[in-house]
Amino acid sequence: MNERSQLAEASSGPTRRGAAATAPSPGTPRTAGPPRKSRSQQWAAWGFLAPVVLYLAAFYAYPLYRNVDLSLRNYTVRSFVQGDAPFTGLQNYSTVVHDPTFWPALLHTVIFTAVSLLFQYSIGLALAVFFTRHFPLSGTLRALFLVPWLLPLIVSASTWSWMLNSDSGVVNAALHAVGIGQVDWLTSPTWTLVSVTVANIWIGVPFNLVVLYSGLQSIPDTLYEAAALDGANAWQRFRHITFPLLRPVSAITLLLGLVYTLKVFDIIWIMTKGGPSDSSTTFATWSYKLGFGNLLPQFGPGAAVGNLLVLIALAFGLVYIRAQKKQAGS
Amino acid sequence: MSTHTAPRTRTAARNRTWSKTALGVLFTAVMLFPVYWMVNVSLTRDQNMRKSTPDLVPVHGTLEGYRLVLHQQLPYLGTSLVIGLGSVVLTVALAAPAGYALAKLRPRGGGLLGFLMLVAQMIPGIIMAMGFYATYLSLGFLDSVPGLIIADSTLAVPFAVLIFTAFMSGIPRELLQAAQIDGAGPIRTFWSIVLPMSRNAVVTVSLFAFLWSWSDFVFASTLDNGGAHQPITLGIYHYIGNNNQQWNAIMATAVVASIPAALILVLAQRYVAAGVATGAVKD
What we know:
The complex is a heterodimer. Helices cover 75% and strands 0% of the residues of chain A. By secondary structure, chain A is mainly α. In chain A, helix 1 (2-22) crosses helix 16 (299-329). Chain A starts with a helix and ends with a helix. Chain B has helices at residues 10-31, 33-42, 46-49, 64-72, 74-105, 110-120, 125-139, 145-153, 157-168, 173-181, 186-197, 199-215, 218-223, 232-242, 247-257, 259-277.
């Protein structure tokens, strides 16, 4: 992650400096050569960028704008098709905040995200440290750890659904073998949030493992050798060398994980549909349910919930971008 | 790092290394148990499916589930393949020139564009889906394969631009200058020098674009729910909804839907690791 993101950074660095250097050239045509060349280069550059800029405008900016528009109007199915819904300002947002689902959904989103991150990160870090000791097969095993991350989410989610099935699931069978009674993982409101969180942790561990492992590679071996000569044991070496030096990479991993976990929708929807009685509803599934999950869609409130989610994700996303800049600069 | 503590004897050190391998195998086995279970259930006979203690190995295995997949799911798989390939072509065609411009041509405002790419990756898919739904509805673009290709490509384009930019800025400037001296314009330089040299980046981007389109459920379930051509993720989803008795067939479909991921892992693992390490993304 280190070197690569620095590479990405290095590439945008000169770009910006280059822009600053060429900025005065249109006003002051001093020499015939360089300014004209750079102007034609600007044309070429924006020619190459034009498709992606148009694409971003049409398929990112416009859908986002439509979403904001949806959240500010009172849409019904009919006015959705005809496009003449009356403007109602923040009415949808007020409806959403006063909805009995709002606080539980917010709480579930926070718990789901925080618990997922905690376990994904600590398991990922433990495994990353474990895999830095090169032993036979370590490369192959590390590659196999990628599998949960590469599988389509619907595959993982339906497999976990069946494993957690109350009557015939392998998890309850194992619990039964050690004398624990049946747990309704996916149908009892007490357990649904736990179940979807466990599945999400399983999916997220590989990402943490890979990024933290590449972060560990950049810590020089000589530091560990010196510490070992000073008589530091394995835990002390981890505590005083690995963990502090890994802090920037950790911050970036956690922030990225945060942004991605907030977005998680597929797993929860496929395993529990957010239920029963909203016991595993997060903002993402609530938004989907309002917009698409019912026979009578509520596009306005659905879009409002979605926009609240975007605001939260972007807030942390900006913190992430700052952290990455800072790390690249140091 | 086992070399840090002086090994007493050679065999002791070797034992310690092998005990680590054993531990590693154990961890991997625990991690991959759900994957094993998926394969196991896909081979289990219907009458053994609801046993109170499930069989840990498919002793009386059956391929009935896979027969049903061949029978019912092939159109879904074909649609997913088309959507995945379409999304790869679109993503590379849009992102490779943009990466070249950002890396080598120093456009004014390029930094801002790079920043927007980072931000774009953070928008939840659900929000994009709602906006797309509203737009496609008025354009009559719902339930169509091209519509889904465009929507799915939004999962990969910003990531692809960042990968191409990072990769292409590693191409030596002298090489491009030499081409310029020989009279090659920017398009010629891009097509004959930059693009062939960026083969690894093209492979990485294509793999991720394909995998994400293949795995997409959010766009499929919102934009293509009533279409004639639906992707495999919806095939599995309807399967769960319609016949929740035949879990061997459901899991067999899941196994087949995992084939691209398995192929990528076996054939192109280093590209995946490179992609993740470049500040990767996952929905």
